[in-house]
General transcription factor TFIIB
Amino acid sequence: MASPWQPFPLAQLTGNVHAPFYAPDLAVRLICPDCTEYPPNIVDQHSSGDLVCGSCGLVLDNKVIDDGSNLRNCLSEGHEDRVENCSRAGEAHYDPLESFAIHLKFSHSHKASSSSVELLRAVARDHLHPESSSELPLLNGPKKLTTTCEPIVPPKMVADIAKQLYEHVEREGLLLQRRRKHLLRRAARAACLLIAYRLAHVPRTFNEIARLSNVDMHDLKRSYKVLRGAFNIKSGGARAPDDATDDSGTDPEGLLVRFCDYLGIACDLVPFYRHVMKKMLELVQIGNTRRTMTVVGSVIYFTGYLLGRPTSLKEVASVASLKGAAIITLYGMLYRNKGTVVPQKWIEDYRARLEWLPRPSQLP
């Protein structure tokens, strides 16, 4: 027996003292009493909250909590499911296109009255400015804007901002003129997309938006200048240049990564392009946007030959919106300084070969 003056008498006990161990019996299974199938065919019906035998239909348990709803997205299924089932986890659904689907009908008894005629004229004036005989710009404009965004896959926030901006353009008639309606609306969609990128602080250039939306550069800059003043984006968090011809987001490394993505260059090769870009920036001085895009195009063209994975001059010039002669000029500068631009470690590791570089006079 332990002494009464010991501070921890139970700690001095000797012998194998084991407390009884309790654990759930994992061998217990829910089996249908009618079918007695093993393994059981039990179906979890989320709509009714029941566990049902899949063979005979007998309800084995009810009031089952639906824990699978948290793994679903409320945008993955149809509109009816989003309305009826509000317990689905995921992003809140908001589509600006749904607010445009407004239909008006007038009573036949007042068809010939002056009020109905005025209402019909108001509807035609506000909503029926078709780009073609069967299209409504307020409905089809955001859809075409979505189609324009598909090649570059913008963030959802950028796409929503562009749709809301275009809604204001159509409702307020900011660019509505009698001539060249279709062209002005295309330029307005491109300008809204560019402004949305600026508001979201995502770098994009005028050349990229004009090339992707197939809009003339002059129309894009003019529409951008008008919409920038109408939306008053000079103040606040938006970063807008003072001149419509000025470009933001023309960081050389940012342009390089985007152009490599457009050309389908592998991600593991992009660090080599970045190193050549840093060396190139030590050789030339960039003064404007055009010069920046020329430098980026020449770096992509030079590094592709250096690594043995060349990109055609036509593809590089198309992505950078440049002429091939400007790219070849800076390519010659890189070729003359190839000893300082290309690290010796690349050649020792068989990553690059100077023999693969064609002479500037041999280029097309």
